[in-house]
């Protein structure tokens, strides 16, 4: 009959418990956890006896009961069980005695949870870490982390993986449940391996009841095209401008190659400002799962910047990018008003025609831009005619409006004020004339006669060649010379144009004297006379991107301006 002399077990001994579920520290209702003690001392495993160990539950004792400790037959391993009775937290403490003092062995106390029954108040959330969080690119395939937050009426709020069932409806795949916090949450991933698609993730508790937020829609997105658009609007006149401290609302629309709206993530786009000196952008948000994104430019100082939007993958600019953004300060009283008709003097305008008025904006800081709302334009009391609203064609550097005279002659004083004070040139006097009446400097009225012109006189002006100027982005190009030709019959009848009126985008830029007659040649029945307009510093156009400017020229003939 063999006997063993045993060593004294020390705190180097170890206890491990498992419920055989995931996680193994959680015990479902009515189930049992199995615990094993391995006897050891400082030199390693040893033989010992049951009486060397004391086992107790120092946690919630209502959670269940512990069995007796038994030897597995080798004198080295000892076993006991815990049987679940009520939900709660238990702490299985195993001690050995040394010098009359109890000492915890390794991993004691061992914490376990007697589970309640998770219910439909458990919740599902998924987040790709992108914007929006329920979307992920399909190429290359991305992933979305989904989390089940466990909840049960007992308040333990922990579970095991078998209590939840996950389902995918649509293309792609999902991974198995794992937990990193003892079953308080379970994580799994949706993998966008099936291409662009709209899918639904469903999680049920005990196979039947969907938990909160289940099913949850996820979107695997395709890459948007360069047809995607960006538009910023300050809500002012012009929409490119905003006072310092105000904002411009921008909308980014994701489009596919067929110009149809599509789902995207904000990370598909690289959104930057050309300079950060005058404001900043907010983080894009979406209310339609990524078909459009909204953000704003918040101005902080007077100046101009560009909102540039490119596709992140190719660095390709999208449609309508860049968007021009001007932060404007309050214009000053050096801003000026000038009105012109096509008559001479320019302050005279007959019934049937109009005069164009231009407000030139001046700011103390030199930005020289403003808003239509900065100015109040009106006709003084007793004035005849009407004026329309302010418009701008150069992003708030100039505002134009039209004065329309009545049928009967009269006088109109056009006032433009800034904060209740007249700007330079205000009020501006206009004369509504009858027919071709001209008011002279002395106030006398003279009449002009409109001669009947032969039909061949109205032949159109022929440009020497199609005229165009390509102007690099944001560069100001001054037009130095304009050449044109007139048929001899027109030149003879008019005596040759001595003065021309120039318009850019229908905004009058002033008159220019013809300074050189370059020559003439015989072409058919008529002589072709060539005139050159000398350098005119006031005529300059700033073109942005692919915008176009239209130049119009009129000549003075018998007291009237005639468009060429």
TrEMBL record:
Query: Where are the annotated Filamin repeats, by residue?
Result: 406-432
| Protein's recorded name | Uncharacterized protein
**Where does the secretion signal sit in this chain?**
none
Query: InterPro entries, from UniProt?
Result: Filamin/ABP280_repeat-like, Ig-like_fold, Ig_E-set
